[in-house]
Amino acid sequence: MPPAMEVVEYSPDLLNGIVAAIDGKPQKSATRQIVRRFAEAGLPIKVKRYFLRHLEDAFRVLCFIKKSGEAVIINTDGMGGNGMTIQLRILNGESFARLDELTESVRNQILHANDCRYCSPKCGKKRYVFAHRGAEHVKCQFLCSNFRLMVENKNDIASVMALVERELDLAVRRKK
User: Fold this and answer.
1) Number of domains making up the chain
2) Residue 102 sits in which domain range?
3) 156-169 in b/e burial notation, b at 16+ Cβ within 10 A?
4) Secondary structure letter of residue 115 according to DSSP
C-alpha cells in the first residue's frame, strides 16, 4: 500500500502531471503560469503528492519566496473536494489598495475570506487590516486560514498573476 503522501522533486515534466490532475482549462493555465513564474525566478518549489482513496492522485504545490515562507500553495483537488484552489499570502499592501483592479470574482474572494479569529498569539502581528470602499477588513494572514482563491475564468488568471507578481516584486525589493 502506498504512503498517504510523499514529497516529490519539482520538474517541468512533473508540472505536466500536476496540470493533468486539474479539471478546467483556466485552472490548468493558472497553475502553469504561477509555477513557471516561480521557477523562472529561481525560487524554491516543493511538491507533495497525496494518494487518496476516493480521488485520483492529488498534488499540493508549495511556491516559496523565502526558504520557509510559502507565498502560494496550489491544491489540485481543493483538499476538501472543492476543486483546484490557490492559497495566497499577500504581504504587499499595495494589493489591497488595488482591489478594484481585480476581477469581481477574485476581489470578492479576498473580501469574503476568513476574518482573523486570533487563532494564535502571533495573530496580532500577522493579520491583514485594510479598508475597501470605506469598510475595514481584518483577515487572517496564516496561510491555512486565509485566501483560498478559485479561478473561475481566464480573466481571473490575470488578477491572480497580478497578485503573485506584486508579491515577487516586494520580495526582490526586500532583498536589496
Assistant:
1) 1
2) 5-171
3) bbebbebbbebbbe
4) B
